[in-house]
Design brief:
Layout: E1 5-7, E2 12-16, E3 22-26, H1 29-57, H2 77-83, H3 91-122, H4 128-139, H5 147-156, H6 163-187, H7 192-199, H8 204-215, H9 217-233, H10 236-241, H11 249-254, H12 266-286, H13 288-297
Antiparallel strand pairs: 1-2, 2-3
Length: about 300
């Protein structure tokens, strides 16, 4: 017997099975409406501040506090002001500093994190889970408690206002993230492929390089994006350990100076914030499929 379906105005749909019994299903229309309404509210909650930042970045300085919800008195002057050095701002150099710090931090953190996570996932030794717990516990240590000892240490060895004073603490912050994420990914990886490669004549290093790393590419790529974003957004230690020479964009934006004393250049700050945020959003949108696949690849056992 053919399977048919019908819908009524009461929100019910029916299916006739091969035995001739009609199964009636009720559609939960109010629940679906509430679900979509909740999704819309969450999206608005997350996107409205960013939208308002963009709108303010295009407004003339004289209309900074205009509450019109769309761009008015549009001007590009705020973006040129953000890159101007006439008022002691060094946004262009700070942007380059953030790229250098973020890239080096991500590369070093991934190299150390990949080997550490592989060892924790592949090797069997006593206390392995305690080691992983210790690594995670280190990530919970408040950063504000590290400012004074790190400042004293780097002052003694002459590292204040240098790249290494910002990169080394950032590496210590992202390592727990990389180790934890990649350990979960490596644990669910089929080790039979590595054993097959070694049976075919590959050394352990060749099996790791030619088999394990390609399979772990989604997880490594996802971890790299998360680590770079964390290094890009770091502010506390950078504001205390770095000077004008190596300060990142987070510190540079906070120190923007206005045309007049005690004047806060809100529109220029919004323009700089837009410049800093847009590349990250574009990167996440372009690679969202890889990010999702990397985060979920190690979560299901086959």
């Amino acid at each position: 017997m053919a399977i048919t379906s019908r819908s009524t105005a009461t929100g019910r749909s029916g299916k006739v099975t091969a035995s001739g019994v009609e199964v009636v299903q009720r559609r939960n229309v109010p629940g679906a409406v509430l679900t979509y309404a909740g999704v819309v509210l969450i999206c608005l909650w997350g996107l409205l501040p960013f939208y308002w930042m963009i709108v303010t970045s295009f407004r003339d300085v004289g209309f900074t506090f205009d509450t019109t919800p769309w761009p008015t008195h549009v001007t590009w002057e705020n973006y040129s002001t953000a890159f101007s050095t006439a008022r002691g701002n060094h946004f262009g150099r700070a942007l380059l500093n953030s790229v250098v710090i973020g890239v080096i931090t991500t590369v070093v953190g991934l190299i150390v994190g990949v080997f550490t996570a592989y060892a924790l996932a592949r090797l069997e030794f006593r206390g392995k889970f305690y080691v992983l717990g210790l690594i995670l516990g280190a990530s919970m240590f408040p950063g504000v408690a590290l400012v004074t000892p790190l400042f004293q240490l780097f002052t003694n060895i002459g590292w204040i206002n240098t790249y290494q004073a910002l990169i080394i603490p950032d590496i210590s912050f992202i390592l727990p993230l990389t180790v934890y994420t990649l350990t979960a990914f490596f644990t669910e990886m089929p080790w039979e492929l590595e054993e097959s490669a070694r049976m075919d004549g590959c050394t352990p290093g060749q099996a790791f390089r030619k088999v394990i790393l390609p399979l772990a590419a989604p997880g490594i790529f996802t971890t790299a994006i998360l680590a770079f974003t964390a290094a890009w957004n770091e502010f506390l230690l950078a504001s205390q350990l770095g000077g004008d020479k190596v300060q990142p964009v987070t510190v540079a934006i906070a120190s923007f100076a206005g045309a007049q004393p005690h004047q806060e250049p809100y529109t220029a700050v919004m323009a700089a914030g837009t410049i800093v945020t847009v590349p990250l959003i574009i990167m996440v949108l372009v690679f969202q499929r890889r990010i999702v696949s990397g985060l979920t690849a190690g979560g299901v056992k086959s």
